[in-house]
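hey so i finally got around to running the thing on that chain from the lab meeting. sorry it took forever, my laptop kept dying and i had to restart like 3 times. anyway pasting the input first so we r on the same page abt which one it is
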Amino acid sequence: MSLSNVRKYFFSSDSMFLKVGTLLFLCAGILNLNFEKPSLELSKQDTAVNFNKNLLTFISVGNKRLITDMLWIQTLLESDLERFKKKDLNNWMFLRFDTIAELDPKFYENYKYGGQFLSVIKDDLEGASIIFEKGLSEYPQDFWLRYYTGLMYYFEMNNSKQGLLHLEKVQNHHLAPSFISSIINKLKFDIDKDLEIVYRMVEHNLNSTQDKFLKDRLSKDLYSIKAELDLKCLNNKKQNCSFFDQEGKPYVYRDNAFHAQKPFSLYRIKKRGEHTLPPVPITTIN
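ok and heres what got predicted. didnt touch it at all, straight out
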């Protein structure tokens, strides 16, 4: 087909628009096949729909449990693993759990699993603390709510006082793990900063338990506490210092300081972000 015929075919007055449309359609097809299309990704935080909880409370008279069940199931199906880095209580999952708590305050699973999901998966500690505390206002004697709340304050939020408040209330519960007393000891030390008091507490717990794992852990704690107390006393040249460690072995004097015969780690609570770093063993302290 000559150039003049092509021009005549595409630009004749009777069919120009149809043929131009056909040409554009063909070009679009070629571009679609040969060029990678940009992807559009929206997070669940940007697309989630949350209703005003006060409005839902008003319109759900007589159907609150039905609506909360639907919200709960929908939230579980739509749940995502993206961490929520802001602290503005605008996390879509927190808003869902908070709405459910408003509609049905006795929905136990909403507190137990919702609080854990917010703290562990979403990293929304502010939202998790609100959900846990609302649960405890409804179920103040529940072991799991009290236990998870205490661990969150201790392990995630570095709030020793709140962690101790909750964990002490369940330390004698039959469901409490054996290591809870060890955590409580460290929390009390973190609050009081008195190693001598904590030493007596740890020693009492060591003599009171029959759990092999806990005995081993408390023995290591006791060694560290006594070594720190003794070495501070000896290296600061105080009176009435002990020259023997928890195992009865004498401290060794070298390089102008007293040292323990085996390395130990300071008896401290690890702060958030330090749990992936192993403690650095030492043999002396000033």
